[in-house]
Amino acid sequence: MTAGITIAADELTTGDVVAAGHFPLTRDSLVRYAGASGDFNAIHYRDDVAASVGLPGVLAHGMLTMGLAVQPVVDWIGDPGRVLDYQVRFTRPVLVDPVEGAELVVSAKVGKVDAEAGTVRIDLTVTFNGDTVLGKAQAVVSLAPAPSVV
Amino acid sequence: MNPELVGRVFAPTPAYLVGREKVREFSAAVFATSPLNTDVEAARAAGYADVVAPPTFAVVVQEHTLKQLLSEPDAGIDFLRVVHGDQRFTFTRPIVAGDELTATLNVASIKSLGGHSMVTAESTIVDATGAHVVTATSTLVVRGDE
After folding, report:
1. Domain for residue B46, yes or no?
2. ipTM for this model
3. Does the pLDDT value for residue B75 go beyond 50?
4. What is the pTM of this model?
């Protein structure tokens, strides 16, 4: 048995939005990610440390933003193992207010279909307060479940 | 930064055993909702040996190589001045619980740009048989004196 849907290459058009998501981050989310990832840089949970290095406040881990941004794509294809390549550039910090938190909005569009390779490049737009926080955020996923998996 | 780091050979990191609960914990932390991340039966039904890690879980293993780089005595990298510029993961196969992974660091390039340095670090992650799983590539920006 295999996981996820098979996507026909000819049903995809560049620019089509295939998935989207909203992610409400709180300080709790940052502490949870720190523990899960082992990244205990204090700028992600202490205002005084953030201020001491010239930051306006506590920031979300870039890798948390990267990690959640691909999840709508994973849910669309139905299998995290079908993400073959994933890259982002960190272009703007995500300030997480202690009371209000921060909401990240993700939109996933078809970038380029490679029918021969059986892959599609999905381009992600991730915004916080209307500004994009990631550049060149691209995930290459396989159109069909892998014939042989781990 | 010391340009002689490019091409230097680093020792592989000690084997990292991917735990099922760690995968579940990481999945929750990145808001993952696929049952393949958490449900062993669902993962097995999909053909995997155990639960599948989210794509960015590879950073947990890669992190050990970045620590090697930052602690290299002659690297000249001040941790407080390091900013994560970009990140990439290129997979041969996904990471699953039960994998024993080792990572080997290669400093691919060091560039200077207006007082700042940019270092590109590639970590090649292999399983217990030596087969390639994923390559994690980070570009770190080291801010110069202001």
Report:
1. no
2. 0.95
3. yes
4. 0.95
CATH architecture of the region A9-25+61-142: Roll (3.10)
Q: Does B129 touch chain A (CB under 8 A)?
A: no
Distances from the Cα of B9 to the Cα of A32, B1, B6, B23, B108, angstroms: 34, 17, 9, 30, 11
Q: Which residue among B31, B53, B93 sits closest to A71, beta carbon to beta carbon? A: B31
Kindly report the average pLDDT of chain B as a whole number. Answer: 93
pLDDT at A148 over 70: no
Q: What is the mean pLDDT of residues B32-59?
A: 97
Q: Give the 3-state secondary structure of residue A87.
A: strand
Are the C-beta atoms of B139 and B120 separated by less than 8 Å? yes
SS (H, E, C) B47-91: CCCCCECCHHHHHHHHHHHHHHHHHCCCCCCCHHHEEEEEEEEEE
> C-alpha A39: how far from its chain's center?
18
Q: Distance between CA atoms of A140 and A85, rounded to whole angstroms?
A: 5
Angstroms from B71 CA to nearest CA on chain A: 16
**Contact between chains at A66 and B56 (C-beta distance less than 8 A):** yes
Radius of gyration of chain B (CA): 17
Of B30, B49, B84, the CB nearest to A62: B84
Domain count of the fold of chain B: 1
The residue of B56, B91, B93 whose CB has the most chain A CBs within 10 angstroms, and thus the best one to mutate to test that interface, is B56
The predicted model gives A9-25 an average pLDDT of: 95
The CATH number assigned to the domain holding B104 equals 3.10.129.10
Asked if the Cβ–Cβ distance from A80 to B53 is below 8 Å, we say yes
B96-137 per-position pLDDT tens digit: 999 999 999 999 999 988 888 899 999 999 999 999 999 999
Domain that holds residue B129: 3-18+55-142
